[in-house]
Protein: ADIPO protein
Organism: Smutsornis africanus
Amino acid sequence: MRGSAGFLLCSLLLLAPRCTEVAAQDVQPDPKTPCANWMGGAPGYPGHNGLPGRDGKDGKDGAKGEKGEEGLQGHKGDQGETGAPGREGPRGFPGYPGQKGEKGEGAFVHRSAFSVGLKERAPHPNVPIRFSKIFYNEQSHYDASTGKFLCSIPGTYYFAYHLTVYLTDVKVSLYKKDKAVIFTYDQFQTNNVDQASGSVLLHLSSGDEVWLQVYGEGDNNGVYADNINDSTFMGFLLYPDPE
C-alpha cells in the first residue's frame, strides 16, 4: 500500500505542471477587470472628443404640407410719411355737361344819377340854378324845386355842366355844402353864342348837397337856353364807399 501511494503521488506531481500550463492557455482573464491578475493597472481616463464629421449631402425635399389656418389680424400700423408726387396721368375725356343750375340772386348795385337842363333864361345870381328840364332822375336824388342834388349813397361822384352863354358874361361855380368848389368864367362876344363848361370828381357823405349857381353880382348871369340851345347839369355815382 505504501508503494502504491507513492506511485500515485509521483504521478500527480508530474501531471500538475502540465495541467497548469493547459489551464493557463485555455482561460485568459479580462485585463480591464480589477482582478484580472495581480499585475493589472488602474483604468485610464476617457479620450478627447473627435473632430466633427463633414456635412452630409442634402436630402430630397419632402412633400408640400397643407395650408395652415389664417392667423388673427394684427394691429394697424403707424401712418407712413407722404411719398413724392407721382407723374401726371393722361388727360381724360371731357365729361358731359351738367344740369343747368338755379338762377341766383344778383348782387345789389348802388345807383345814383341825374341829368337836367335849363328852361328859364338869365337865372338869378347867388342862388342855386333850378334846372327844371329832366332828362334822367330815376332815383329822385335831384330836387328840381331847389336845384340841388342830395347825396343818399356815400361815395365818389362825377359832376359836369355845359352852359350856353348869350347876351352877357357868365361866371358860375359848383357848390358843395355852401362852399364853392370850382369856378368857370366866359366873356361874352357880341353877336355870338359861347359855351362854358366844367367838371369835377367829389367824395360825398350822406346828406351832402351839390348845386350850380351864378357867382357874384353884376352882369355875370348870361346862362341861356331856348328851343335850340341847352344848358345842362349832370352827375352820377362812380362807386360807393365800402360798407
In short: The two ends are 171 Å apart (CA to CA). The chain has one helix and ten strands. The first helix runs from residue 2 to 26. The helical segments are 2-26.
